[in-house]
Amino acid sequence: MTDAPAPKRAVRAAFDKAADAYDAVATVQRAACDRLLTLATGRGFAPQRILDAGCGTGYALAGLSRAYPAATLFALDFAPAMLRRHPPGLALPVCADLEHLPIAAGSLDALWSSYALQWCNPRRALPELARALAPGGQLWIATLGPGTLTELRDAFRHVDNDEHVLRFQPPEVVIDAAECAGLRVLDSDRDTLHAWAPDLRSLLTDIKTLGAHQTGAPRRRAPLGKTAWARLSAAYEAHRGPDGLPASYDTFWLIAEKT
């Protein structure tokens, strides 16, 4: 499971399309960033040059700026529409793929990446991230694991045998790729974060708005019919909780140092 889960062109197009509405539904993404910031800033480390790789609409930049007011921030994303959502002057924008950073080797003190690595091949991306770090520099990552959207995967099993939900790499693959790239793991954590919606149509709309809707998974030949939709809805109802229908995001946080 070391390949990227979806074609990069499709992922870029999905996130470009999602940019304008992204922030309205990105509660889980913000929670993942907040926890990563807590892990990263509790180490007494004072980086001067920080890159947010896969920055999206730039939510993490304000927290990084508050935590490290003397640092120069760079914000990289390969979806131009995401970069256009940033508040001006907070970071220097870079439109590029984090598997091919247009950054000199050893030029960064810290590299942040939240919910972006899962769209990459970790054995290509992590050596590239490590290359950009100076010795002693730190890598701060949040990424999705294979338990993401498990409720949706379970519900679709009541409809057909197609694969409707992407499967992301497990933490073991990410850790191994990081260590092979010359990074030493300092800390890690794993938890399941949840988004909630009142009904299945709203939940699927939110997932689509986040840009990651089944990108790269085999597509159905036709839309779901009434019978299939009824089976899907009934199966998903088994997961309903007090806050509505959940969407699980299996999240893995990693703090590593370039040796």
Task: Describe the 3D structure.
By secondary structure, this protein is of the alpha/beta class. It has a domain of 177 residues: 3-Layer(aba) Sandwich (Rossmann fold), CATH 3.40.50. It is built from 9 helices and 7 strands. A 7-stranded mixed β-sheet has the order 3-2-1-4-5-7-6, sandwiched between helices. 41% of the residues are buried.
Shape descriptor reads globular
Please give the alpha-carbon distance between the first and last residues. Answer: 26 Å
- Low-confidence stretches are 214-218
The CATH architecture classification of the domain at 8-146 and 167-194 and 249-258 is: 3-Layer(aba) Sandwich
Helix/strand-derived category reads alpha/beta
Q: How are the strands ordered across the major sheet?
A: 3-2-1-4-5-7-6
CATH superfamily of the domain at 8-146 and 167-194 and 249-258: Vaccinia Virus protein VP39
Which CATH top level class of the domain at 8-146 and 167-194 and 249-258 fits?
A: Alpha Beta
| Radius of gyration from CA coordinates | 18 Å
> What is the residue-mean pLDDT, rounded to a whole number?
91
Strands, total number:
7
Percent in strands: 15-25%
Percent of residues in helices: 25-40%
CATH topology of the domain at 8-146 and 167-194 and 249-258: Rossmann fold
For the largest beta-sheet, the strand count, sense and barrel status come to: 7 strands, mixed
Number of helices: 9
The secondary-structure element order is: HHEHEHEEHEHHEHHE
What's the assembly state of these chains? single chain
